[in-house]
Amino acid sequence: xxxxxxxxxxxxxxxxxxxxxxxxxxxxxxxxxxxxxxxxxxxxxxxxxxxxxxxxxxxxxxxxxxxxxxxxxxxxxxxxxxxxxxxxxxxxxxxxxxxxxxxxxxxxxxxxxxxxxxxxxxxxxxxxxxxxxxxxxxxxxxxxxxxxxxxxxxxxxxxxxxxxxxxxxxxxxxxxxxxxxxxxxxxxxxxxxxxxxxxxxxxxxxxxxxxxxxxxxxxxxxxxxxxxxxxxxxxxxxxxxxxxxxxxxxxxxxxxxxxxxxxxxxxxxxxxxxxxxxxxxxxxxxxxxxxxxxxxxxxxxxxxxxxxxxxxxxxxxxxxxxxxxxxxxxxxxxxxxxxxxxxxxxxxxxxxxxxxxxxxxxxxxxxxxxxxxxxxxxxxxxxxxxxxxxxxxxxxxxxxxxxxxxxxxxxxxxxxxxxxxxxxxxxxxxxxxxxxxxxxxxxxxxxxxxxxxxxxxxxxxxxxxxxxxxxxxxxxxxxxxxxxxxxxxxxxxxxxxxxxxxxxxxxxxxxxxxxxxxxxxxxxxxxxxxxxxxxxxxxxxxxxxxxxxxxxxxxxxxxxxxxxxxxxxxxxxxxxxxxxxxxxxxxxxxxxxxxxxxxxxxxxxxxxxxxxxxxxxxxxxxxxxxxxxxxxxxxxxxxxxxxxxxxxxxxxxxxxxxxxxxxxxxxxxxxxxxxxxxxxxxxxxxxxxxxxxxxxxxxxxxxxxxxxxxxxxxxxxxxxxxxxxxxxxxxxxxxxxxxxxxxxxxxxxxxxxxxxxxxxxxxxxxxxxxxxxxxxxxxxxxxxxxxxxxxxxxxxxxxxxxxxxxxxxxxxxxxxxxxxxxxxxxxxxxxxxxxxxxxxxxxxxxxxxxxxxxxxxxxxxxxxxxxxxxxxxxxxxxxxxxxxxxxxxxxxxxxxxxxxxxxxxxxxxxxxxxxxxxxxxxxxxxxxxxxxxxxxxxxxxxxxxxxxxxxxxxxxxxxxxxxxxxxxxxxxxxxxxxxxxxxxxxxxxxxxxxxxxxxxxxxxxxxxxxxxxxxxxx
Length: 1018
What we know:
Number of helices: 13
Strand content: 35-45%
Largest sheet: 10 strands, antiparallel
Number of strands: 73
Oligomer: single chain
Distance between the termini: 44 Å
């Protein structure tokens, strides 16, 4: 079997050696062994030269240079000779230095700007930073120290001080590093605990940040005291003092570069694979990529760009023709720089617009990785009118100004989803605005992990799917239904939110703060935001809170909502934070997603590609009124660099509404200010206003708009409004005719309300247990619970809706449900006999009622699973329907040994010379799930490695029931005698047969469940 990591492992080993040479410690090592550690001594000399100050301490010398009134640099040369290995690579040219002054305070020299004072204590030399008001920022617990290989700064840690940053820290970063040690340096470890795309910068909740200006690896131990160490015999750090983390990130990125503004297609999903001489997929050619592009179009799936040579040893051909074909399908061409960027100019002239880098072929070490990013970015811009757009798996400080940071070769598992959530949100705290990983990894994966991963990554700015490394390709249409439709739902939502995301991308170029944010960044005073309570969620912009599902489950627990009112994006239900939500119903097609009340979200409705937009396309605003709020839309041509010369526009929407309950809602749409090529001079507008209740009227610039009687009438009307009580707890839809973009206008919803309706708390809630099993072909009871809010609900109707082919019972009706009480109902649901058991199904419970004088609707979406009737008597396992099946190579086989990639291509089952007519042939790692329905008493089989493997397989077998391991075999090889399996099942409902690799060599793990049989009652 193919082992795709072998070449990469060799490359990594070589690179680590090269990196040690290039980025190793500065200075020499004593021939007679390491020198003892030293700490800087007393100041023996002082000199001032404008914004630069020199402090001598014997042979050592420190140098302080002020960059701005809140940014300064401290250097220490133990031997008195300063060096700067980074040169002009990372730190950009800065403006004129600030006015500074100094004074001798007796025990210290005080070096000051209008904003900060750096105290240099004399005996011994030790630094301390204070603000202009005298408050402490940081203080060294002892002076700078060094040995032959490292320099260390030691800082006192504040009682409640929290620490963030250090770049991409896999599995960490969006919560505090306090009490932990983080490594900063390229390690080619792309799993949990690794640190690809490291950045030698950290920030503190005490109001400061530190950037070590070096290519050397760093170690930051945020203990008491804090010790930060770089593997070089020089000290060079920039310090930033600011009132907030955002301000500190802004100062750091002013020094090292603001994040670049991607082209708009760079915010769409991308696809990558090898299409020339692909050893894993057979003979192919670069133009074959157009067939994959056609798959996206035919399945109505967005896709912005394609890397067509992404694979070791993969070349490319027909670049111009391929680029033209992709362009006709509204996609851009990308290429992987396997063999460097020497041909980039010709490639770009032929149509390349995306460059994905690999350190192995760009160069060796940190400097060359950064140089590669900058050179590829510049190469695109020097040879076209496009913006530079690169991806890199390993980078350093400064790479934020030229590329997307990608977290490397990972697998499609629930664990990977879990630890990637804090990884990307945390990287924002180091000025990395665009970080991401492949959808469902490049290895392994499943239909469920694919869509769950795609759902939340649709709320990252950049995303990509990579093919050719796993048993199944990773395009979003590969798994069939319902998975293709789920992928379509989220990719189209990502498309519709492009103006929102693009506005935040433009903000990142000004502030350094990326769109994806940990809660601690927006809620620094929330004591839970920096803790594990918020570890597995993040914000996209300020308005969307995303809480991904990272387990094989249809519910999500532990969703922390910070202060404010939060609205469930799918149901309209409101929550008041701070609060923790447990038991959130999240069927496979539902990403837990909340919107902050007050949000005004710009959208492009109904598109598959940004290129679907025309001069007459509408701009839609999704508005959640509460108090006073606003959003500024940023627009430019989306592709060229003209925006750098001022060719762009902004348009602000301001919303004025009650803080709670009833009242008028006013929406003021400002004039679009600025111009660019292709700007809409006029456009229609659409608004979705989440008020709950219907207003008495809607006026446009004082002119009453017509209330339309239905959703259908609204769609065909040129102007007007419609209240839909059944959509997300009640929304008002408004549309205008085309209006000049250079003129402001206003909408007024008279007698409307803030989110939650005119009577907050009047809404009912409906719940139903998730994970219910519905017997195919038989009516199955489904239970619901309806709870009235602060007002009695009248005329209550409870109904179910399910996919086509499913049958639901008639609605249950109640004349009234008293305020604060709950009614439990039993409805029935029948799955069709041909329903696929492996596929979860989403069912919706809908409650229609009147409360507080208005018609209302509440919905609850939950997951059910169709199951076959329970077996009876003695039944062969290979004759039963399998609820799910995962296999290490190809499919698991019925009554045959494991074959190749097709079904039924194995051989007759044989163990120790004995052949079996019945059984299951698998390849580790394997997992086959059965429905026993509580009627089976035991399971029997003979387990072993099939004779066709001879003596080189090794695996272990296990039987699980309802989540508990009932039996495990010893390690078995091709030489082992078969093991008799006789496991009591104890009335289990679900049974799983697993075969697990035990030696890391999966090439011969053909595990047979020979003669596998369930023994059941009835």
